[in-house]
Amino acid sequence: MTLRADLNLIAQQIPHASRVLDLGCGDGSLLQHLINDHDCTGTGVEIDPEKVLAAIVSGVPVMELDVDADLSLFATGSYDTVVLSRTIQTLRLPDEVLTQMARIAGRLIVSVPNFGLLQHRLMLLRGRMPMSRELPYSWYDTPNLRFTTLVDLEDLFATLGLVIEQRINLSLTGEPLGKGFRAANLRAGAAVYVLSCP
Predict the structure, then answer these.
(1) Distance between CA 171 and CA 189 in Å, rounded?
(2) What is the pLDDT of residue 43?
């Protein structure tokens, strides 16, 4: 099984034998990889019934829940890492979800498309809603409720007391950009954050 580039990068940030909660897990491919290749245990959470079924067929433990409303079902400290990959922009209550994630595990991994990308800004200047590899939907059929820049997201992390241990900027094709990469809010297509809560 070949993982999407950003999911492979996320998998590299998760220590072997970790307990992982994957919120918005889709078809469960990340958890399947972590279970099979990293000796992890875990649970996926997904609201789309077709994706839940795909995860179950792949042998991934998954629960059909609403991330915005149902995270109180998970006990405090019950996981080592909570992953929220390309999902925060679809949530009604991202601040509350991040707070719950910090309660459930001491380590959080969040990936997000960057609405502040220069190409997106130029599309807006031309009077069009941005579309790209990271934001592939038309304005009228998008699952995205929130559009954030990396700067805005980092402000939210700080407000919630989450510490950014690492930010990995991703190119428009989903590949990691070098450590010397500058102007990420303008030039990165997306980012993966590794967070901790003191």
Answers:
(1) 5
(2) 98
Q: Give residue 43's domain range.
A: 5-196
CATH of the domain at 70: 3.40.50.150
Is residue 20 within 8 Å of 28, Cβ to Cβ? no
Please write the tens of the pLDDT for every residue from 25-75.
999 999 999 999 999 999 999 999 999 999 999 999 999 999 999 999 999
Query: What are the E-state strand segments in 86-154?
Result: 107-113
Phi, psi for 196 (deg, rounded to 5) = -130, 160
| Domains in the chain, number | 1
- What are all long-range contacts of 46-53, with beta carbons under 8 Å and residues at least 24 apart? 51/25, 51/26, 51/27
Coil/strand/helix, residue 44: strand
Q: Rounded to whole angstroms, how far apart are CA atoms 78 and 61?
A: 15
